[in-house]
Amino acid sequence: MDDGDKVRRNLVVASSITMLLAWLQVPLVSVVDRLFGTKAEGYSPTAWRVWVAVLAVLMYLALRFRFSHEVEEGMKAFRDARRQRYRALYQRHLKDLEELATQGTLAPGPFREEVETPALWRHRE
Fold first, then answer.
1. Above 90 in pLDDT, residue 76?
2. What is d(CA 118, CA 100) in angstroms, rounded to the nearest whole number?
3. Helix, strand or coil, per DSSP, at residue 109
4. Span 82-105, mean pLDDT?
5. Does an H or E element contain 20, and which?
6. SS3 letters for 42-89?
7. pLDDT (average), residues 77-106
């Protein structure tokens, strides 16, 4: 099995060559004829078949990269960091709501102005 760097490299090289050939408008049929010598054997593939084969190879490489071990670990680390960030924001929000309910105002912070509690939220004395 290839390691993650080789899988990524193969995907980048294959997609770059495909985009370059498409941008330069090189007929893929002639490229396939030269690479595999199909014209000498009396067979010349149609353009749509060549494009389907190229897209299948690119799809295979993209899926292999996406489900590689390194990408899975990176996505897990990203999800864990995002979950911790949202948990911290949620805890801060709960603390602000508690402060708002008990004191009637929020202390001014770096990104908030002083906020007064709506009359319906205030405790009745």
1. yes
2. 10
3. strand
4. 83
5. helix 4-23
6. CCCCCHHHHHHHHHHHHHHHHHHHHCCHHHHHHHHHHHHHHHHHHHHH
7. 84
